[in-house]
Amino acid sequence: MEMIQKENAVIRELEKYSSHVIANCVQKGNGGAELFDVFKDKWFTDASLKVQFPEFGSRAGYAVTMRVGLPVEGYIPPTRAELLKLIDASPKPVVLVMQVDEPEAMRLSDSNFGGQFGYLCQKLGMESLICDGAIRDIKELHDFGIQLMIPGSIAATAPSVIYELNGTVTVGGMEVSAGDVVFMDQDGALKIQAKSVEKVLACAKKTKAGNIDPNKKLTLDECLKIFSAMGAHSEPDEENSEQP
Q1: pTM greater than 0.70
Q2: What's the CA gap between 102 and 163, in Å, rounded?
Q3: Can you name the residues that pair with 64 across neighbouring β-strands?
Q4: Which of 19, 21, 79, 108 is the most buried (most CB within 10 A)?
Q5: Cβ within 8 Å of residue 221, ≥6 positions away
Q6: CA distances for 152 relative to 7, 144, 160, angstroms
Q7: Mean pLDDT of all residues in 154-159
Q8: At residue 92, what are phi and psi to the nearest 5 degrees?
Q9: By C-alpha distance, which of 181, 203, 177, 202 is closest to 190?
Q10: pLDDT value at position 211?
Q11: Do the bridges between strand 126-131 and strand 94-101 make them parallel or antiparallel, or are there none, so unpaired?
Q12: Number of neighbouring beta carbons within 10 Å of residue 197
């Protein structure tokens, strides 16, 4: 229990940062936690999924995963009651990550998640949903405080069933296993190995944002000086870079 509480506090600390800071810390070659290769590892989402409520800010949590698809004759699927039990048993907060295994024409024209079930998930500790298919009732889900990262929303419901719970899923190019930590904001989502969250947080704390005035006029020489202080992937360090 003490370990779960400690990790929860680290998760909340991570939420103070933006995805580009966390990504720089996770990506190999940047001198941070050195977890994933940007070209070889499936650790972040592509542009097919969009955060719906940027006003919620950054979100992070432990992944509970599910894979859904069309009914198969003779197959007895897991139930959504079993999913609720997994959310309840998971460390908190929870990010539900849902892969939709439907034909492309159906994946974006049937809803696999909505307000009524979302209400129950939220009561058990789910704060965010990432899904590569359509959902519905986004106003209700917004009112429940659930962040959504989805392609879009529709009105109809789906005839889908659960294929798998707490396995490994792929959504928007990101491969996630149950228990991974998933971080998201309006720029996208990425995963972190749960055992590495403290290392990633320590790296994030070393990143300092410069006090940049978007209305200030700069010469080319001044721009080049600031760029040099930024380095290849980071923002200006307010202690070590001089602002014109």
Answers
A1: yes
A2: 11
A3: 96
A4: 21
A5: none
A6: 32, 18, 18
A7: 83
A8: -110, 155
A9: 181
A10: 63
A11: parallel
A12: 21
241 has a pLDDT exceeding 50: no
Q: What is the pLDDT of residue 238?
A: 43
Three-state secondary structure call for residue 168? strand
Kindly state the tokens that stand for 2.
């003490």
| Amino acid, res. 1 | M
Share of the chain above pLDDT 90, in %: 74
CA distance 132 to 130: 7
Residue 153 CA, chain-centre distance (Å), reads 18
| Residue 156 identity (one-letter amino acid) | A
Please state, as a whole number, how many other Cβ atoms lie within 10 Å of the Cβ of residue 91: 18
Alpha-carbon torsion angle 81, 85, 88, 92, nearest 10: -100
pLDDT of residue 60 exceeding 90, the answer is: yes
Q: How far apart are CA 153 and CA 145, in angstroms?
A: 17
Residue ranges with strand state E in 56-180: 59-69, 94-101, 126-131, 147-150, 161-165, 168-171, 174-177
- The burial of 107, by beta-carbon neighbours within 10 Å (0-12 exposed, 13-18 middle, 19 or more buried), is given as buried
Look at residue 234 and tell me whether its pLDDT is greater than 50: no
Residue predicted with more confidence, 46 or 242 = 46
DSSP letter assigned to residue 237? P
Domains, the chain, in order of start with CATH, read 42-190 (3.50.30.40), 209-244 (no CATH)
Name the token pair of 145: 């405080």
